[in-house]
Amino acid sequence: EDDKYEEIDEREKQPNYEQKKWEEEQMHSAIYRFGAKGVKKEEDYDYVFDEQIEFIQALQIPGTKELSLKEKERTVSEAQKKRMDLDETKRSLPIYPFKDDLIAAVKEYQVLIIEGETGSGKTTQIPQYLNDAGFTADGKKIGCTQPRRVAAMSVAARVAVEMGVKLGNEVGYSIRFEDCTSERTIIKYMTDGTLHREFLSEPDLQAYSVMIIDEAHERTLHTDILFGLVKDIARFRPDLKLLISSATLDAEKFSAFFDGAPIFRIPGRRFPVDIYYTKAPEADYIDAATVSILQIHATQPLGDILVFLTGQEEIETCQEILQERVKRLGSKLKELMILPVYSNLPSEMQAKIFEPTPPGARKVVLATNIAETSLTIDNIIYVIDPGFCKQNNFNSRTGMESLIVVPISKASANQRAGRAGRVAAGKCFRLYTAWAYKHELEDNTVPEIQRINLGNAVLMLKALGINDLVHFDFLDPPPHETLVLALEQLYALGALNHHGELTKLGRRMAEFPVDPMMAKMILASEKYKCADEIVTICAMLSVNGAIFYRPKDKIIHADTARKNFFCPGGDHLVLLNVYKQWADTEFSTQWCYENFIQYRSMKRARDVREQLVGLMQRVEIEVVSAEGDSEKIRKAITAGYFYHIARLSKGGQYKTVKHNQTVMIHPNSMLFEDLPRWVLYHELVFTTKEFMRQTIEIESKWLLEVAPHYYKARELEDSTNKKMPKVLGKAKAELQVVN
Ligand code: CDP
Ligand code: MG
To answer: What sequence ranges are listed for the domain Helicase ATP-binding (predicted)?
Structure first.
């Protein structure tokens, strides 16, 4: 049920659908490819210049019609009109009257904390103001970090439009596996993780004159670590300006951390928001949300609705139910536009949420947490808040990570409500009781650094030469045991030696923007001579498993198609098989369509794969093929993921080897009917049970081969009720050395 299906398209029922769809895909992919040089998204598409029109024509894509001179003129004059509207919008933002003060403050102080309501213009305007004020005059860049990739991309696109430049030229973005910048780029948006990696190649951020750590209140792991890193370099780069920008009331805390840096407050424009609670707890909040949406739509004056859900699956479910109910109600209602927003949303669809609602219609935006502060959608009057979000949680006792749905904090609830009062007085409908708000919600969300696996972060810091992690300048330090566990894991993977120093292997692992286990598996593919297959598997795993397409009315066909890809060994090999077959068709769209494979995900996997191959060259690993030897491939995977091993126990359940936790094979896995004795899983997902997602069959003796320092032969014997082995000894000693 937590599969990621793609919304079935109404048009699918039309004649010529396949041809049309193909043309459309071609069009998108042309725009996408073109995007590397210039125009990127649909939203920019009506903002084309002559050369761009010509470029698209030159591709001679079926479906693109020749534009007449008249049409060209119209396109260009529409662009001019848009330009004027844009200027007006820019001047109406709350930050606008403070432009000069802000520039003066940046000139005066090296570090500045900026606080302002979401939507006041911090992210889109500040880099432009600083650009106007000459901060890029000496060939240096203005950088701005975002915790979320969608935000980085969409904000960059917006700013490119506002500045009248092509995305990727003067204004660009860089996110994991996708760099849309050039030598001309002066304003660069990036995810916090990307900046983290830039430190590896350029520890003093020499390319930047200003670095903005935006959405600081989100307190993601990467942002938290960046605080320490930028604070440090600010000392020996007095010419570097640092802006820490945040939406909520953490400003004092940030100021204290940055040695009393001044706080620049942008007065918010805020309209009152009435808050409503349910009288009794809701059993099914998705259902409650859809009912509320329709009630608002039927009874309340026009104004858009924003609904907070926890993830893509929920959003799609909600969208489906809504569409069905709206269809049933037919012409009794005004038009309701349903728009999803989540982080994997294809970029060409992101633009839609920012388009103005047509007169007489109402927009309902179904969003994840991303709309809480990272993205501002104009004209929201109603907010529906079920009170949950998805969180990555890490159990430092068991070392297990899983994605779970948890209640939000009061601070989050108030941010969400605030979204309703940006343009006029609004209403927020909380799908929980006032009692629950008061007594069950925590005041603040726990920062990520205190609740997730630090393996990745520790590896990066070690690669930056920061050995003493215990005394690293953290805004809020991570729990000691999480740090120990990360060190221990990196030690077991061979990335650190017993002094806690980075090994040669660790240094090579740090080159890859993936978690340490995946990095290890990539490097192990050298030994097992299967790098070609392993990079493909990594790329396929990185697109979040959203490979198979399972439209509701064709479930049987889709499942049959999926089963046709099954091949011995397990799910990783199925993914490999899909990619290989696709590659054999010269990456055909038609083939994807016929086999119920999501073309977009495949295209992304192909991009990711290309990037990984580039990185392989950097660490000098030859991309050779195992020529069908599945054991080699599975051993390389095991060399990275030997932590994720479970053994069959009673009743079709599995127990994890180290901590004896009960887990199940996911029903979508090809091993679901097989239940091999030993399995390796890629990740755990908690829905109704703790499920292993993407599993392969392994042999227990491989564990002794790939991780002799982690597994002892006796734990791999086939009797049950083993005591927990003592493996912590060395890593603890190591931490003492670090101390
Ligand atoms: O960063 P902050 O929350 O202060 O505001 P912002 O993201 O700079 O947004 C300022 C304005 O730009 C808002 O009115 C947004 O609706 C608009 N915007 C947009 O139209 N498209 C985007 N991709 C991002 C922002
Ligand atoms: Mg912002």
So the answer is: 103-267
Burial of residue 563 (CB within 10 Å: 0-12, 13-18, 19+) is exposed
Strand partners, 695: 681
| pLDDT value at residue 397 | 63
Q: What is the pLDDT of residue 545?
A: 55
DSSP 400-454: EEEEEEEE--HHHHHHHHHGGGSSS-EEEEESS-HHHHHHHS-SSPPPGGGTS--
Contact in structure between 463 and 506 (CB atoms under 8 Å): yes
Token pair recorded at residue 570:
């397990």
Interatomic CA distance for residues 254 and 114, integer angstroms: 10
Assign 647 to helix, strand or coil.
strand
Distance of CA 429 to the CA centre of its chain: 27
- The H or E element that residue 53 is part of is helix 50-59
pLDDT (0 to 100) of residue 427: 94
Alpha helices of 143-212 — where are they, by DSSP H? 149-163, 192-201
Quote the distance between the C-alpha of residue 246 and its chain's center: 20
Q: Looking at this predicted complex, what is its ipTM?
A: 0.98
> pTM for the whole thing?
0.78
Distance between CA atoms of residues 495 and 212, nearest Å: 32
Report strand pairing: 654-656 vs 645-648.
antiparallel
Instruction: Give the residues across from 534 on adjacent strands.
Output: none
CA 27 to CA 61: how far, in whole Å?
Answer: 7
State which H helix or E strand residue 144 sits in: strand 141-146
Instruction: State how far the Cα of 634 lies from the Cα of 588, in Å rounded to an integer.
Output: 28
CA 152 – ligand 1 centroid, Å: 12
The closest residue, in CA terms, to atom 8 on ligand 1 is 121
Distance 729 CA to ligand 1 centre (A): 51
Euclidean distance between CA atoms 64 and 86, whole angstroms:
28
CB 117 within 8 A of CB 148: no
Residue with tokens 């989050």: 412
User: Residue 98 is encoded by which pair of tokens?
Assistant: 């403070």
Listed residues: CB within 5 A of ion ligand 2: 122-123
Q: 49: pLDDT confidence band, cut at 50, 70 and 90? A: very low
Torsion angle of C-alpha atoms 536, 539, 545, 550, degrees rounded to 10: -70
Q: What are phi and psi of 158, to 5 degrees?
A: -65, -45
Q: Which residues contact 229 (CB under 8 A, 6 or more apart)?
A: 196, 199, 464
Cα(618)–Cα(393) distance, integer angstroms: 33
Q: Where are the alpha helices (DSSP H) in 504-543?
A: 504-509, 516-527, 531-542
Least confident of 4-13, 161-170, 279-288, 312-321: 4-13
Around ligand 1, the residues with Cβ closer than 6 Å are: 93, 116, 118-125, 154-155, 158, 354, 376, 378
Distance CA 214, CA 121 (A): 12
- Region 253-268: what's the mean pLDDT? 93
Could you tell me the maximum CA-CA distance found in the chain, to the nearest angstrom? 80
Backbone phi and psi for residue 654, each to the nearest 5 degrees, phi listed first: -120, 155
Å from CA of 119 to ligand 1 middle = 5
195 vs 185: CA distance, rounded Å: 15
- What is the Cα–Cα distance from 463 to 473, expressed in whole angstroms? 17
